[in-house]
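Researcher: Let's walk through a ligand-bound prediction step by step. First, I give you the protein sequence. Second, the SMILES string for glutathione. Third, you return the three-dimensional complex as structure tokens. Ready?
Model: Ready.
Researcher: Here are steps one and two:
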Amino acid sequence: MDALTLVIANRNYSSWSLRPWLALKHAGLPFEEVIIPLDKPETRTAILAYSPSGRVPALRHGDVRVWDSLAICEYAAELAPNAKLWPEDRAVRAVARSVSAEMHSGFASLREQMTMNIRRKVAGVVPTGSTAADIARIVELWTECRSRFGKGGPFLFGTFTIADAMFAPVVTRFRTYGVDAGKVGEAYIDALFADPAMAEWVKAAHEETLVIEKYEQHA
Ligand SMILES: N[C@@H](CCC(=O)N[C@@H](CS)C(=O)NCC(=O)O)C(=O)O
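Model: Step three, the predicted complex:
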């Protein structure tokens, strides 16, 4: 098989990069990493060399280019079917795809108000309005998935799936901004942080020396 190269941005801030990185790790697929720091004069040109959208993550696999987080997760699931990155049951898989797509296309207020910043802890944030509504919906969704489909393990559909990869950055935001996810939600957050691949990313984010000032000023 051709070598895989995943192009990502700063681990501390790039929520979209974390998702396919986790999916590839859980797929057991070896890959090389290219890290392009965000918010630098050369960032756009550097990303465009790999990604026609000018955004990361992007995956290179021989002649194949995949340039969107969810599309890369899907590609990983196809390359490594035995890793079961989607639930096996079609009806359950449809729910997993729905929650993943809901994350991918939604929760704009949460994403804007509570940017991913793994290294940071911000006290005293009281979410209001559409951010509070986003949080309530996420907690509802986690609680429902855990109670309906979570019997086989600690993740949304039991064992780790793409749905967990999609929510991994949200879990870090809840910790950064001290969001209370309730009993089921907090257990789910703990489970994701205990995942070895996630722990590897979080450790690397803490060790990273790149700082983007505008993302440090929030709240
Ligand atoms: N919908 C895209 C979003 C990707 C995205 O917004 N990536 C950001 C980094 S997290 C980016 O590349 N920004 C380019 C820049 O800031 O120059 C996906 O799911 O991959």
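Researcher: And what stands out?
Model: Residues 89 and 95 are 10 Å apart (CA to CA). Residues 9, 14-17, 38, 43-44, 55-57, 68-70 surround glutathione (CB under 6 Å).
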